[in-house]
Structure formats: C-alpha cells, structure tokens
What we know:
The complex is a heterotrimer. By secondary structure, chain A is mostly helical. Chain A is 40% helix and 9% strand. Chain A has 3 helices and 3 strands. Chain A has a two-stranded antiparallel ribbon with strand order 2-3. In chain A, α1 (5-14) packs across α2. Chain A is flat, with a radius of gyration of 23 Å. Chain A starts with a helix and ends in a 5-residue tail after the last strand. In chain B, α2 runs antiparallel to α3 (219-238), α7 (323-333) crosses α8 (339-357) and α7 packs across α9 (368-379). In chain C, a hairpin with a 5-residue loop joins β10 (428-436) and β11. In chain C, α6 (210-220) packs antiparallel against α14 (454-466). The A-B interface holds A 14, 16, 55-56, 58-60, 63-73, 75, 78-79, 84, 86-98 and B 17-19, 23-26, 32-39, 42, 50-56, 74, 82, 84, 89, 130-132, 136-143, 249, 258, 260-262, 268, 270, 273, 275, 277-280. β3 (89-93) of chain A pairs antiparallel with β10 of chain B, so a sheet runs across the interface.
Amino acid sequence: MGIKDDKVKYVAxxxxxxxxxxxVSLIAKQLDGILGYVDKLKERLDISKDTPPMSHPNAAxxxxxxxxxxxxxxxxxxxxxxxxxxxxxIKVPRIIEE
Amino acid sequence: xxxxxxxxxxxxxQVKTASKMFCGCTTEFGGPPNSHTCPVCLGFPGALPVxxxxxxxxxxxxALAVGCKVSGEVKFHxxxxxYPDLPKDYQVSQYDEPLSENxxxxxxxxxxxxxxxxxxxxxxxxxxxxxxxxGENSSLVDFNRSGMPLLEIVSExxxxxxxxxxxxxxxxxLLLRYLDVSDCDMEKGSLRCDANISIRKKGDTGLxxxxxVKNMNSxxxxxxxLEYEIERQVKCAEAGERIMMETRLWDPARCVTVPMRSKEExxxxxxxxxxxxxPFALDPSLxxxxxxxxxxxxxxxxxxxIGVLGLPEYxxxxxxxxxxxxxxxxxxxxxxxxxxxxxxxxxxxxxAFLNSKGIPIxxxxxxxxxxxxxxxEIDSGKISGKMAKDIVLExxxxxxxxxxxxxxxxxxxxxxxxxxxxxxxxxxxxxxxxVEDFMKGKDSALMFLVGQVMKKTRGKANPAMVxxxxxxxxxxxx
Amino acid sequence: xxxxxxxxxxxxxxxxxxxSVSPEDIIESVCSRAAAVDAKVKGxxxxxxxxxxxxxxxxxxxxxxxxxxxxxxxxxxxxxCASKMLSGFRPPYSATVIEKLKAEGAVVLGRTNMDEFAFGxxxxxxxxxxxxNPWDASRIxxxxxxxxxxxxxxxxxxxxxxxDTGGSIRQPAALCGIVGMKPTYGRxxxxxxxxxxxxFDQIGxxxxxxxxxxxxxxxxxxxDEKDSTSVNTPVPDYLGCLTGDVKGxxxxxxxxxxxxxxxxxxDAAVREAVALLESKGAKVSEVSxxxxxxxxxxxxxxxxxxxxxxxxxxxxxxxxxxxxxxGNILDMYERTRGEGFGAETKRRIILGTYVLSxxxxxxxxxxxxxxxxxxxxxxxxxxxxxxxxxxxxxxPTPAFKVGERSSNLLSMYLSDIFTISVNLAGVSAxxxxxxxxxxxxxxxxxxxxxxxxxxxxxxxxxxxxxHTDWHKRSPKL
Lengths: 98, 478, 477
C-alpha cells in the first residue's frame, strides 16, 4: 500500500492544513496503518452489487419548510466573533482575482 | 481552413423566493452588509439547513418547462472548496443525481430554429460577495447573498455561434420570467453565465480543447466575448499553437479575454452526499400537478395569437416577450373583439407611455377593461382616433375611464350632419380661393377645407364625415 | 443540606416540591462540591455560577443544574469543543436542547471537558488538559464526553449532556460507573451541536441512575423543524416505562461481542448481569451480528469523511482562531488550521479528506456506505426476530491508564468496538453500571434497542438496576 509523504502533503493542501515535516511523516505512517487495516478487511468481505449505500439511518420526516421570511440575526451578533472586521464587513487578506 | 465554434453555456439564476434556500433570511436585494444573515447561511458551527419548498417547486417548474425528466428523489451533495465567500467552505449542491436532466430549448437564430439540448437543471445555494478595495491589502466579505437559492442550467455543447448563444439566453430568460422563477437580470446579478467554447474544423465531430470564459455581464457581453474567443482560438490554431484548456476572464473595457492569474490546480471538489439533508422521494403527483399548472409558454402563446387570434407574427412576437403584456392583451379581448386593434394600441401608445415612465404593465393605471372601453368609443364614432390618442394618455396617468374623460372635457366627436353643415358652410364662405382651386380640379384643396372645419370644431368633428359633407356641398355648387 | 450534591434529580425534585430546599441551595451544594474536587478530576472547563431562577421553579427539571459538554452551543457562553480553534468563541444562539432544558426549568451549570471536536475515547485529546477518572486519577474517564461522565460520577453535577458519535456517551459512562444513553438517530435535535459526523451524532443524557436518564431524555427529545434529520414521532412517557419488571423480555447476546482477548473481569461481570436478568424472567438467547468486525473500519472511513467536511468551516474567516499576520488567504487558511487544530483532529481531517478525494471515493467511502447497510441489516434481522434488546459489554476493558493508548492509534480506535455499530445503524443504546473490577474500576453493560424503542431500554435497565447497587457507589475523592 504505502501512503507516502507526498500524498499526505497533497491531501493537507486540499484541506488547507499546514503540517510540519514531522507531522507529515507521522500521519503518513498512521494513515498507512489504518488504511492497511481497512484494506485487509475489504479482502475478506464480499459485497454484493445490489447492496445499496447507506447515507442516513432513517427517512426524512419533513424534508422542507414553507417559504417564509424570518428575522435575520442582528449584525452585531454576526460580527461579535469576527477576528477582523471593517465597518459591517468581515475583513480577510486581499484576494487576487484576476 | 474553416473552423466552427462549439459552445456550451452554464447559467445560474437566482430563484424568486421570499426567503433563502436553507434558512428564513430574506432574499431582498441590497440591504446593509451582513444584515440578511443568520447562523445557518453564515455556516456557524452547529447550524443546520432546511430546504425551502418554493425553491424546489421553482426548480421542478423550470425542469418541466424545458422538457427535462424530473428525478424521483431529491438528493443533495456537498461540493468542497475553500474561499472566503463560502462560509462552510463547501457548497450544498447536487452532483450525480440532479433534480432533472435531458431537456431542450428551441432557439431561433440567423433565420434557423434549432434545438439546444439541456443537460441538467439542478438546485444549489449561492455564496457571499467579496469586495476588493482599491489600494488596500485586504478584501471584505458580505454574506447577504450567501444561501440565496440558485438554479444551475447547463446546456450541451450544441450552440453553434455567438448569435445563437445570445438567442439562447434571451429565450431562457423569457421562459424563466414566464414561470415567475427568476427575473434573470444580469445587471442585478440574478442571472450569471459562464461559457465553454472550443473550435474544430468544419465537418469534424470531435471536440477540441475548450476554454472556459467568465465575467460576462450582459447578453451582448456574452456574444462579444465568444466572438473574440473564436477569433483568438482560430488564430492560435492557424499559427500551429496549442489551445490551452484554461479559464479566461472577459474584460469588457478592452473587449478581450485574458487568462485568470490564479494558479489554482484543478479543483478536487470531493463530492459526497450531504448528511444534514435526508434524501426524499419526490411525489409524482406533485410533479404532475406542477406540470398541469404550468402557464402557457411563450412559443405556444405566440402560435395561438397567430393561428387563433389572427395576429401577424410581428405583433404576436412583441406581445409574448413579457407574460404580463400578453395577459393584458388577452384580458382586453374579453371586452373587445378586434385583436389587431388592441395590439396596435399596446405596441404603440401604451408601450411608449410605459417606457417613458419606466414602469411595467402591471403598474399601469389603465386596466384592460378601460382600453377596451376607449376602443369601443372610437368604433362608435363618438371620438376620432386622433382624439383617442390624447385620451389614452390621460387614462394611463389617471386610471379614469374613457367615458368619464370624454364627458369631463366635452370631447365628443361631432358626427351630427346638421352641425357639421353649419361649419362647412362657414369654411366654404371664408375660403373662396380654395373653393375655386378645388372646382378647378385641385382635389387636395379639400383637405385644407376639412382642416378649417376641424379647427372650428376644435378637432371634435368626425373628419370622414366632414369630408363627405364638404364634397356634397361643393358638388352641389357646380 | 450539605449532601444535596449526592442526590439524583428525581430525589431533588421530591425535596424541592416539599419546599425543604430551594434551587439556590442545590446550586450552592453542587458548586461547592465542584470547587472542592474538580482540581483532582478536571471535568469542567468552565463553571458558570448560575443564578437560580426567581420565584417558584416550574417544569420537569425545575431548579436542576445540568452540566453541558463543550460542543453544545449556549448563547453568549464560551463554547470551544476543547479546541484552540474555537478559543474565545461565544455562539450567538443556543442549541435546541438548551432551549428545551431552560423551558423545563433546568439551569446550565458549566461546560465539561472533552476530546477536541469529540475525536477521541479518553479525553486526552482536549486542548486544555486531560480529565481524570474519579475512581482512579491515573486513568482516563473515557471519551469524548469524558468531562460530563466524570463530573456526574464525582457528584460535581446532578446530570449532564454529552454527545455520542461512536460511543462517546456510553463508553465514558461505563468507565466512570454511571448511566449514559445514545438515543435513536433523529430522536434529539442536533441543531446547535457542533458537528463531528452528521449522520452519526446524537446528544444524550449522562446521569446517576436510569430514572434520571429517562427524565432528561424526556425533556430533550422531540422533533425540531430546524433539524432536517430529526424525526417527527411522538416522545413516549419514558418514566412510565420504569415498571421494574423484565418478565418475558427477549434479550439477545451477540456472540461476536464476547471475544478472546476481552478483559476477563468485564466478561464475568456482564455474564453475571445476564444471569440476573434471566433470573428475573427475561428470555435470553444467543444472536449474531455477523458484520461486527467491520464496524470500526467503516466508522473511521465514514465519520472522518463527514468530520473533515464539517470542520472545513474553521478557517479563521468569521469566528475562532486566526493566525497572526497572514500573508495571503492561502497562508491564513493553512496556518490558522495548522495552529488551531490538535494532532488527532489533523489526523482525522487528513484521513477524511483522503477517502473523499478523487480516485479513492469508490474504494473507501462508497464501499464503507455499503457495509454500513450490511451492519444495519444485522440489527434489523435481530429486532425483526422479536428481540426487545441486545445485551453486550459497553467497553472491552475498564478504564486504561493515561497515555497507555494514545500512541497506538488502532488500539485507541478499537476501544470503541462495542459501541460503534449502534451509531452506524442509528439505533438506541444505554450503558448501565454492572460491576467493578477487583481494583475498583467500574464496568458497564450496554443494552441496544430498536429505532425509537428507548422505552424498552429504560425498562430493562431500570429493572436490572433495581436489583443491584452499583449505581449507589461513589468514588472516594
């Protein structure tokens, strides 16, 4: 199998997670262990093509709501946890778009 | 070497619901930043989405109107990517089981009607808005738009020309406005369009490398951007250069497309079923009742106006461009049975009035019954067509009916022969020279005399009658 | 008066109604107890000294102080999931369960420690400090609701709320000698629970006895229109199910749950409990849950996938930690998340992202979803054959020592082996104390019930409890 460090770095980039080199190596080893365990089990289990994948334990009771407007949050509460703001906007480092 | 373009369009429209896709925040446009938000559309930890039923209904209506097959199940997926305007860093959307697939829209362009296949229509939520300040090292985020309900409508790469793309968008907008699903206003952002375009040698059936074009802000912009892209790609091909698969942005100021600077690798969206929304079966009877409840669509309406009501194609075409106009027209016909006459007035005076005030026909104070009343007054000879043109303006402004205005202003057309004879006699006696000219064979001199009678009656005389009376009198003089 | 903190909620309600004590007395007693012993237990991350409501208390939990796990939002209160990523975070709204508690007169006492973002089985992964087992301070209390379990066991709280994704209520309850229940998925609203794995998570009670668990579940259960996964089915009268009688109840013992290598004392204690139930009229027989061995693997694929997605929102933009002086947006994301998340959290995010990534989705995620169906079918077959409950040990071992497993990931994950299938299927389960090891460590047994059959679980558990006094023992602190 072999989860290599490069793979972990790629996945860490997808997840926007900065890892030190040591962390990368450790996680690679640990993931390798876990996925190795999973793969062994997969070899033993024969899954029929008709088995449906399960995403939820039970059916939806009430899958939608009526189109009714409800009061929004007061803007102070929206911004109360913001690390950085300007006026009523949330502030982030500049995005270079084009 | 002759090349032909192959174009596919991906359109996002904002659905006209009162509240957002997954929460009760208002969808009202504008509003101070971050004032139309709540824990759900802000993606606060612990908040959960609940689907807006009206958004689902609008999606079903749209799917049916473009002939798509509606899925038996409603299922959502998470589409993951990181961006500051995306609060949860995933978008709730639909992936391999969209709400509907495989429809088509008929598009008339360059004299030909072609079917453009619709690959899919699905539901998703919108992201917030990023503002990049001039000269600042930061960007600002406003989440008012986050969570707004969107429909994504994807065409197959069937579109053959920039003009056809323009007509496709026009047709789509017309349809969606008929369904009252969306205003489709590109300037207000309720319709956004991305294009995929490639070229191939004429007669080839394969697909060339495509470029994705974004940032077009109007239907004309889409057409211009595609025209530019075709030229660019053809130049590339003829120079033996490879056409890159890339995303390009339309620059409306310089009228060119430029490659996006961001060096994002191809996104791995890691789609998986949205665990906070349980998939549910779509009741076929609900879909059926929506199908039955669909309004008559523009094409069918136009055909009926031509075939059944006998309108010329031009008139029918103009009237069906806005469902409210077509409805107003038909409402008039409940009180007055000459479609062409109604059409003339709607396309003429009424349209001019609406344009000058910048209001839609639904806000017009003169209602269909009123217009019908006016037209009957003309037919009865009580007023002339010319008088009616003034009256109709006042009807539009005030909402009063024709009869009331005619009485108030004493505008009844004089059709009583004896009264007219009196004025005719006056005109004849006052204009001996003109009479002489007429007697000598100058037929047009009569018009001058008619004009004199009209002046004397302050325009209230029935001109046709005046003409007749004068001719009789002059004939008697011979 | 001084020993109010040792009582159960139902006992306190009785005294309150007789007006022999006031709500303020109860809060005072519990807070003093916490002040006296929490330095040894470290179950709380925050105790808010709440004021009792003025006037006569009313509601099913009138005047009762309830400790709340640090991943359940309480408006305006620090809610951090025991993570640096949410340091300073005060949610602008409360979870539905908190609203329900308050509507029935309960008082939120404090925030209890947990494994960061609920990733863990020992409370060692908290960003603050590890909570210690009140029965033996060199051992872990279990996790991730280790704080809630420990404070109830130590009488630092009358009752507590926790969350259970793979056993996080039941396993610490067993290791701390108290009652803990994971309701059927969809029984209790998840609105306001900071999500770990959305199709597994449930909030549930941790209490000193079964009656209190029935009382607390009766308050927090119910359909919530703000949670699309909550189920609209009536909440039964759980207290009315406590008949004390198990005559005729059919109990299944799954052979896959009594394995070689299980702790012998755990094995013995659970078998004795089975014998007791049989002697009181329960019909016990062996059943099979054949896909049990795949449960841990399936769980770690599916739950980490969902978790990696649920934790994407912790990005430094709107709330929580943001790194200093980010150079650009990518830097902000990567450093913020690198600094804010602990090691186990990072591990699970990487694993979850990996199994969802292009090329691996079919091999891992999709396959795991199919095996999840097989595991659910195992339960459906047993309950379909007429069994009222399934009885298993809650944990294969009693509480292990601090640091013993944290370096062997797989062994840590396997400590959930008896509880995980329940979350995969979404059925209900309760853990009740059923003995102690020779060295005085609590042992718990688990009763698993069909969807929305918590009543049967309460009935059997209460009947068992009424013939034992494990729940009356207290750790020496």
